[in-house]
Each structure stands twice: as structure tokens, then as C-alpha cells.
Design brief:
Elements: H1 2-26, H2 30-56, H3 59-89, E1 106-108, E2 119-121, H4 127-132
Antiparallel strand pairs: 1-2
Helix pairs in contact: 1-2, 2-3
């Protein structure tokens, strides 16, 4: 019975990873590709890690599987958010009819050789506060 359950978990995880890979190929822009990889890829790896922990059967293996799953659940959404924000601020526009963030983030350019990297103007923070940080 355990072999059947772990096989089903591993197969489901592999199928979700395949769906994530197909999503990377088929989606039209960076943001939807990132979403496909983050959602389906994370769930797929969680199922595979769960199958591995159950197959090994020891308390140590289950603890390691749980910690690995916790790591993926905590880091993947943060990484996807940071990648999406960095892409948007660097000028990658989403494939949508109306960009609801257009005009909310303005990048400032500095003279070459000033030693400062371009910064982004954040909503709710005035320029004096940004300059001091």
C-alpha cells in the first residue's frame, strides 16, 4: 500500500513538474512563465519530496523531507516576487491589455560616472527619504 501511495505522489509530482516545463515554453511573457514555474514547480517538488520521505520511512527522513518542503514553501514565493519586481523595474512590460502599475514606479537615471546605480521611486516615499537611505 505504501508503495502505491509513494508511486502516486511521485508520479503526480513529476506530472506537475512537466506542466511547469510546458508552461515555461508556452506562456507569452516573463511574468506568466515565472508564475507557471513557481506554482506548478513548487507543488511538484513538494509531492516528490513527500514521496521520498515516505519511501525512506525513518523519522530522520521524514524530518528532512518536512524541512525541505518548508524551505521551498517559504522561499519560492519570495523569490518569484523579487524576480517579478526586478523585471518590472528594469523595463520588462507584462503581456496585458492594461498595465495597472504603469506610472507608479519611475526609474531615475543618474549621470554616468556618478558612482550611484539607478534607483526606483517607490510610492508613498518622497525623494528626500529615498536619498537619505
Amino acid at each position: 500500500m505504501i508503495v502505491f501511495v509513494t508511486g502516486l505522489l511521485a508520479l503526480s509530482g513529476a506530472l506537475l513538474m512537466l506542466i511547469a516545463a510546458v508552461g515555461l515554453l508556452r506562456m507569452p511573457d516573463f511574468y506568466t512563465r515565472m508564475q507557471a514555474a513557481a506554482k506548478a514547480g513548487t507543488l511538484g517538488i513538494l509531492l516528490i519530496v513527500a514521496a521520498t520521505g515516505i519511501t525512506l520511512g525513518s523519522v530522520s527522513a521524514l524530518l528532512h523531507a518536512f524541512l525541505a518542503s518548508l524551505f521551498f514553501v517559504l522561499t519560492t514565493p519570495v523569490a518569484a516576487h523579487l524576480l517579478g519586481r526586478a523585471a518590472y523595474l528594469s523595463g520588462v512590460r507584462p503581456w496585458v491589455l492594461q498595465d495597472e502599475l504603469a506610472g507608479r514606479y519611475h526609474t531615475q537615471t543618474h549621470e554616468l560616472g556618478s558612482g550611484r546605480a539607478p534607483t526606483a521611486s517607490l510610492p508613498g516615499i518622497d525623494q528626500a527619504e529615498q536619498a537619505s537611505s
